[in-house]
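Sequence design from tokenized structure. All designs in this work follow the same two-part layout: the structure record, then the generated sequence. An example of the structure record is given first.
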């Protein structure tokens, strides 16, 4: 009975995550990978950390917008022609082309096409088309992707903003705190890894009680 219930629970997770029905065996196998749950009648379970939810930048921005947070206006392009049309639609004198790849360090990465940087500022729809053609369908190599790189299937074309100051803010799950942790720094920007390595005291970490949630004094800290 316990094994059956566990099996059913995994199936439900897999079906929801993929937004389409699957057979029980295929769905559970996709979630478990090589965990070996079904070997020897389900008696062997290999503990393995899996990251089952990874959001592209444009998805995160959509969630922020739904929560009432102001974001730069932009749209996703899956082809150079779409990038051209979006840049023209935005009507700005300059726009930003951002490779949508699930890896950090995109701005300092290199494409197999030879293009340097996964975040580029362009000044015309024609340039947006030319730059995106060197990103879409090409692998991007960063410190996080390693030698294998990661394919870029789409780009975010958005209006350019001119911030007076940049901050870093993130929410992550931390095992040592057994819950979520707020991470912030006044030294924001794309080089947060360097800040962590060189001046770790510039980064603030605030554990949040997973049952009580964030308190006002913590937010103001």
């Amino acid at each position: 009975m316990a094994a059956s219930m566990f099996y059913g629970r995994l199936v439900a997770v897999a079906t929801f995550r993929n937004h389409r029905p699957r057979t029980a065996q295929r769905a559970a196998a996709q979630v478990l990978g090589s965990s070996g749950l079904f070997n020897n009648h389900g008696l062997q379970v290999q503990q393995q950390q899996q990251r089952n939810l990874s959001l592209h930048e444009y998805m995160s921005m959509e969630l922020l917008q739904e929560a009432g947070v102001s974001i730069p206006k932009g749209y996703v392009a899956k082809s150079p022609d779409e990038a051209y049309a979006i840049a023209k639609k935005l009507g700005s004198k300059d726009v930003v082309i951002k490779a949508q790849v699930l890896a950090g360090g995109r701005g300092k990465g290199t494409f197999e096409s030879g293009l340097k940087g996964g975040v580029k500022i362009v000044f015309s729809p024609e340039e947006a088309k030319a730059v995106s053609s060197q990103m879409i369908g090409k692998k991007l190599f960063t410190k996080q992707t390693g030698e294998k790189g990661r394919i870029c299937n789409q780009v975010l074309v958005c209006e350019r903003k001119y911030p007076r100051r940049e901050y870093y803010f993130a929410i992550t799950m931390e095992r040592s705190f057994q819950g979520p942790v707020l991470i912030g720094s006044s030294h924001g920007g794309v080089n947060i890894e360097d800040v962590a390595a060189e001046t770790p005291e510039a980064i603030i970490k605030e554990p949040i009680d997973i049952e009580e949630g964030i308190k006002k004094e913590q937010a103001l800290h």
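The chain has three domains: 1-52, 57-159, 168-220. We note this feature because it recurs in several other targets discussed in the main text.
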